[in-house]
Amino acid sequence: MATKKSVGALKEADLKGKKVFVRVDLNVPLDDNQKITDDTRIRAAVPTIKYLMGHGARIILSSHLGRPKGVTPKYSLKPLVPRLSELLGIKVEMANDCIGEEVEKLVAALPDGGVLLLENVRFYKEEEKNDPEFAKKLASLADLYVNDAFGTAHRAHASTEGVTKYLKPSVAGFLMQKELDYLVGAVANPKKPFAAIVGGSKVSSKIGVIESLLEKVDILILGGGMMFTFYKAQGYAVGSSLVEEDKLGLATTLLEKAKSKGVSLMLPTDVVVADKFAADANSKVVPASGIPDSWMGLDIGPDSIKQFSETLESTKTIIWNGPMGVFEFEKFAVGTEAIAKKLADLSEKGVTTIIGGGDSVAAVEKVGLADKMNHISTGGGASLELLEGKALPGVLALNDA
Ligand SMILES: Nc1ncnc2c1ncn2[C@@H]1O[C@H](COP(=O)(O)OP(=O)(O)O)[C@@H](O)[C@H]1O
Ligand SMILES: O=C(OP(=O)(O)O)[C@H](O)COP(=O)(O)O
Fold first, then answer.
1. HEC readout, 168-222
2. What angle do CA 386, 389, 395 make, to 5 degrees?
3. Please, which residues bridge with residue 376 across strands?
4. Is 335 in the pocket of ligand 1 (CB under 6 A)?
5. Residue with CA at minimum distance from ligand 2 atom 1
6. Residue 113 near ligand 2, beta carbon < 6 Å
7. What is the per-residue pLDDT across 291-308, written as a single tens digit (0 to 9) for each?
8. Is the CB of 222 under 6 A from ligand 1?
9. Strand order in 296-300's β-sheet?
10. Could you tell me which of 184, 169, 153, 151 has the C-alpha nearest to residue 45?
11. How many whole angstroms separate alpha carbon 59 and alpha carbon 44?
12. Full DSSP string of 285-312
């Protein structure tokens, strides 16, 4: 685990004129017109960058956006430059690549206090493979490394882990430290009953976390795209809803494990189904066991909202990652907004509420309730893995970890 020493290391580092490779998580939601719909992750990255600017460092920012397969214009980081520049109060330069000669020239031209944003590091498949040669190329751009990408700290990728082997010192940024300080404390000894709410669409990467969560929580509520794999495992028809066919066996095991552990695992009893994946789809509420052929579940229904809300009343700590439905479409935002309101309400009554994840936080911001929560985390998967008790590779790789 990174300790206060890591921040000390950043504060003690000689930064004047030094090229600093800063991994940030600028994986923000964008709409169809490439407009940022929630800038939480950009704002969260600002304190470390401003500190580096103020100390005369030459800042090379690196991030991913989405899960592109190769170079994909839709996943370019260019639309973020105006907002980043505005927040930093300087003109941020943008590179068309993240390695190579053009990037080296732009780095060489950086003045003290200047900021260069590299293009999406996931445009190279070597990033997620944690390819050492690619990590070396990234590292060759700079003199030292700062990891402030808490949201990606659970990934052992070239820009989060590999690069630390070639860049010393490698230290945590302020956001990384703040997240760890809060989350490690909050989840090591949570006030009980402790509930986790897991939804969203990253089923295959988050379903595995559920097994360990069953060791920690008293109540586990599942919604969003996560629920249909569990429905199908129980023999329900799911129409054209999001399902991970190869996780059906795991879902069955998890249902059994919850029972044997005495964990109350709750699935929505009703679902809002749609005839297409669109804002103007026809929709109706059906029982969980009654999803019609070729319809897809895009939100939890009113009965589920009621049951989940009543259950949450009894808790003392709640961690939530993953929206309950496709909240980006008004018609399917009801479940997510109701749960957000419930958590805000409970927070005022003294329940500890932690919301993590790019889209979950966007949903809570959208209804203006972020300020009511105890902690808004920039990491969804990362906070769940911390809660599991796992060491995060991006943190472990730092010098003072
Ligand atoms: N029933 C569903 N079917 C498909 N996608 C869903 C469903 N419910 C929620 N989602 C989608 O899940 C996405 C967020 O998932 P995820 O990335 O796991 O959350 P976070 O970013 O908070 O960690 C949202 O874009 C939302 O539209
Ligand atoms: O959005 C993210 O994770 P999250 O949705 O779990 O919060 C991070 O940027 C990590 O992205 P990834 O899950 O594609 O590695």
1. CCEEECHHHHHHHHHHHHHHHCCCCCEEEEECCCCHHHHHHHHHHHHHHCCEEEE
2. 50
3. 355
4. no
5. 358
6. no
7. 999 999 999 999 999 999
8. no
9. 283-287, 270-274, 296-300
10. 151
11. 16
12. EEEGGGPPTT-EEEEE-HHHHHHHHHHH
**Cis (ω within 30 of 0) for the bond into 193?**
yes
Amino acid residing at 228:
F
393 lines ligand 2 (CB under 6 A): no
| Ligand 2 centroid, distance to 168 Cα (angstroms) | 26
Closest ligand 1 atom to the C-alpha of 202? 18
Instruction: Kindly compute the dihedral angle of the four CA atoms of residues 268, 221, 253, 242, in this order, to the nearest 10 degrees.
Output: 50
- Ligand that lies nearest to the alpha carbon of residue 327, given by its number in the listed order: 1
pTM: 0.94
Look at residue 400 and tell me whether its pLDDT is greater than 90: no
Q: Is 122 annotated as a binding residue?
A: yes
Residue 355: nearest ligand to its CA?
1
Residues marked active site are found at 41, 202, 358, 381
Residue 360 in marked binding region: yes
State yes or no: 262 annotated in a binding site: no
pLDDT in tens, 313-328: 999 999 999 999 999 9
Alpha-carbon gap, residue 320 to 347, rounded angstroms: 13
